[in-house]
């Protein structure tokens, strides 16, 4: 009796009315969204435009699903085309059966088409989405858990997977959870690519090649543990040979690419550079218009200040000041020439002399009286 083990779900599908909700499909969908989200963040960080990764994924994902299914059907054709089998089952992708090698191959073709339409280099895009693809695989492997498939040899370890289904030749028991091993390995590969990309500034497809090489290493030993039917070549499963060949090709690509194209791409999406330049020009134009507006406002303020200074300087020449000046000038003219005074002013002067004989003005009046008498005589 096993005291500790990983239970398998009793059902791999839930029905919402007439609509089936399959765990395998949900795992794949979650993985795709995770890959696109992380790839978009990495693409923007490298100078690309937001949304480009999703636009290209529209091409890559369908091609990848078709390629993954084709690889599985071709390598396990006896499951669909042998005696007693229904070839229509080859189209039932929800029942499981996606080969990662075919998914990567045709997915790359779809990505190339999308990149060509957008005018961006495929290697740069692949570098951006590489760790996201690894995390997507980690999610997708849990779909095998829902379908109770692709498990390893029998074991009594505490984390053994309990298989309860007996369909398609399964034998209920406790087995190595190879789906879990591969899921954890893919998580480690994703973080390895992120670290190496930051540390060594990988470019021109080398981050993607690192993901492929690292995944092949783990897939090799995990594949060796599986007990499901598979074609063998020289004692090794077909997928083991595939992992070895793909690993060597990925390493060779890293070496050759590092020599031919060292460093990382400076521009990954020309349209993003054009948009940035247009935004800079618009910002400069806006700042120029703002400076001109401020200059006009300062000039208006200066003119207003000048007008106020003029008003202050001319305050003494206003209408009131002019009238006051005229009155003062008139008084001065009336008293400036005593000879112009008329005789009618004399009676007024005499009493002043009589009242104040010591006043000089009284003496002047007496002198005028004498002068007037002399003229009369």
Can you characterise this structure?
The chain has 377 residues and is mainly alpha-helical. Helices cover 66% and strands 5% of the residues. It has 13 helices and 6 strands. The protein has helices at residues 23-45, 52-75, 78-81, 100-118, 122-140, 142-147, 178-200, 206-225, 238-260, 270-313, 319-336, 346-355, 360-376, and strands at 13-16, 19-22, 161-163, 173-175, 232-233, 236-237. The protein has a two-stranded antiparallel sheet. It has a two-stranded antiparallel sheet with strand order 3-4. A two-stranded antiparallel sheet has the order 5-6. A hairpin with a 2-residue loop joins strand 1 and strand 2 (19-22). Helix 1 runs antiparallel to helix 5 (122-140) and helix 2 (52-75) runs antiparallel to helix 4 (100-118). The radius of gyration is 51 Å and the shape is globular. Mean pLDDT is 80; it is low at 313-367 and 373-377.
Unreliable stretches, pLDDT < 50, 5 or more residues? 313-367, 373-377
Computed Rg: 51 Å
Oligomer: single chain
Determine the N-to-C terminus distance: 170 Å
Strand order of the largest sheet: 1-2
Task: Name some characteristics of this structure.
377 residues; mainly alpha; two-stranded antiparallel sheet; 6 strands; 5% strand; disordered C terminus
């Amino acid at each position: 009796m096993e005291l500790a083990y990983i239970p398998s779900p009793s059902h791999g599908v839930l029905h919402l009315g007439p609509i089936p909700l399959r765990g395998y499909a949900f795992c794949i969908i979650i993985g795709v969204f995770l890959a696109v989200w992380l790839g978009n963040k990495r693409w923007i960080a490298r100078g690309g435009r937001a949304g480009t990764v999703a636009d290209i994924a529209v091409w890559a994902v369908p091609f990848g699903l078709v390629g993954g299914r084709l690889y599985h059907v071709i390598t396990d054709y006896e499951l669909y085309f042998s005696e007693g089998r229904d070839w229509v089952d080859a189209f039932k992708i929800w029942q499981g059966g996606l080969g990662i090698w075919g998914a990567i191959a045709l997915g790359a073709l779809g990505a190339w088409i999308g990149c060509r339409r957008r005018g961006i280099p495929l290697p740069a895009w692949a570098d951006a989405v590489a760790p996201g693809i690894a995390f997507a695989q980690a999610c997708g492997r849990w779909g095998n858990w829902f379908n109770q498939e692709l498990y390893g040899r029998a074991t009594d370890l505490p984390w053994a997977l309990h298989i309860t289904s007996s369909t398609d030749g399964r034998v209920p028991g406790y087995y190595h959870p190879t789906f879990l091993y591969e899921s954890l390995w893919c998580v480690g590969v994703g973080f390895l690519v992120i670290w190496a990309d930051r540390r060594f500034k990988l470019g021109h497809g080398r981050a993607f090649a690192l993901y492929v090489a690292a995944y092949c290493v783990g897939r090799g030993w995990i594949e060796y543990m599986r007990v499901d039917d598979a074609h063998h070549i020289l004692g090794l499963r077909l997928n083991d040979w595939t992992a070895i060949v793909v690993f060597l090709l990925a390493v060779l690509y890293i070496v050759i690419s590092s020599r031919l194209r060292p460093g990382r791409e400076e521009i990954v999406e020309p349209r993003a550079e054009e948009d940035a330049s247009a935004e800079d020009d618009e910002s400069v134009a806006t700042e120029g218009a703002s400076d001109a507006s401020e200059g006009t406002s300062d000039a208006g303020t200066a003119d207003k200040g000048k007008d106020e200074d003029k008003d202050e300087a001319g305050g003494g020449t206003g209408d009131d000041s002019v009238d006051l000046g005229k009155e003062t000038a008139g008084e001065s003219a009336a008293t400036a020439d005593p000879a112009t005074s008329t005789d009618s002013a004399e009676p007024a002067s005499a009493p002043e002399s009589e009242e104040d004989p010591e006043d000089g003005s009284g003496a002047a009046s007496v002198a005028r009286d004498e002068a007037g008498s002399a003229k009369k005589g």
